[in-house]
Amino acid sequence: MYNRNGDNMVKIIGAGLAGVEAAYFLAQHNIKVKLYEMRPVKMTGAHQTGNFAELVCSNSLRSNDLHVAVGLLKQEMRMLGSLVIEAAEHASVPAGSSLAVDREIFSKYIENKLYHHPNIEVFKEEITDIDLDEMTLVAAGPLASDALSKRLSEIFHQMHFHFFDAVAPIIEKDSIDMNIAYLKSRYDKGEAAYINCPMNEEEYNKFYDALTSAEKVVPKDFENNVFEGCMPVEVMASRGKQTLLYGPMKPVGLEQEGKKRPFAVVQLRQDDAKQSMYNIVGFQTHMTWPEQKKVIQLIPGLENARILRYGVMHRNTYIESPHVLNKGYQSIEHPKLFVAGQISGVEGYVESAASGLNAAIQVCAFLDKQKQVNFPEETMIGAMSHYIATPNASFVPMNANFGLLPALKEKHQKKMRKTLYAQRAIELISQVKDENPWI
User: If you write DSSP's letter for every residue of 182-197 in order, what string do you get?
Assistant: First the structure.
């Protein structure tokens, strides 16, 4: 624990991935934290529990591979002492090269760390106002309450900031017909951790027709800006009959030995440590529940599927960060106010946690009257903070991706290029730590 005098106090609004990451880092650096979470006193349209750091599915943290942008981001976070990555590795379940977790074990690990920390005080209540003279980190997430959203829109002079995404259904494993479905990871990468449901062309055509003609939940006027990375499967399908075959139903790398490659494959991914629940990969949806059941049961192997959770649409809120935040997630106009998580314009659970970690580091520097800690744009955590602070005429939430990083000086093949990106980023994170030994 860092040897600071302990007189400073920071108020954190939200105990999602960004909030818990920030709270723990600050507390470990001897800063008093008041952590506010409105659930379960007031629930959102998507959360099911009042747990800290609740995840939508077991694979919300995605790949561990350094050749994947989010895998590199996780490695950077490990180097910076991330609680979220520590908890994920404690709660991990088999998922090939992905860092999948038992969601309940994951949340409980984090709660145990925070509830028992001497520098953290937890409050289960809704915050509707922000004192701009008080050190505050807003990490309310994409489902911020209407009252808090209204207050933020006033502070940042932005009257409209929101978009929508969707979550996928979860199937009970025992209801999957394993005489039809089979275990395999794409290209046999890692252990055979995915359940694959193969389709021939006739089965795919029947499925496609049902999917594209299914009744949908009618979106409200403000629900039409859907984040591309969370595109509902029926919207993806409406772009053309081949779209799914190059997306979540791509059969390449999923062949069974001695058998012809399927025309299409639906994959299911483990969602809990007991291997009792599997979510359908890439099948976020806003179909009505009866239509979801009808369409899912057209998938070979899922004819008798028991759906434990249907897909739902829910609101995601974010601010136009380039106009109001610097690359330290700090308000330009109100320096005691920081904003992290998806509400700041990053997209994804890992990205949200990383922004909370970055913001907490910047809060420490601010309280100690130090310069902002510079995470170079060549690091993934730095590239994300540069993105949310750089003017952009069509700013939308963004996942970690290699396109955010400055190009290498020399041209290389794709895999080597990603290897060099990762090496460069890891070296630079080490330099940041050397320059700021208190981190």
Answer: EE--GGG-SS--EEEE
Q: How many CB atoms lie within 10 A of CB 268?
A: 26
- Give 315's DSSP letter: E
Confidence of residue 231 (pLDDT cuts 50, 70, 90): confident
CATH of domain 9-162+317-435: 3.50.50.60
Of 2.50.20, 2.40.30, 3.60.21, 1.10.287, the CATH number of 166-313 is 2.40.30
SS3 category, 112: helix
Q: What residues contact 101, with CB distance under 8 A and at least 6 apart? A: 55, 58, 60, 61, 87, 88, 91, 92, 93
Strand 277-280 with 163-166, pairing: unpaired
pLDDT digits (tens, 9 = 90+) for 278-288: 999 989 888 99
Q: Which of 202-206, 221-225, 427-431 has the lowest mean pLDDT?
A: 221-225
Distance CA(42)–CA(49), nearest Å, equals 10
pTM of the predicted structure, to 2 decimals: 0.74
Report the distance separating Cα 152 and Cα 231, nearest Å. 27
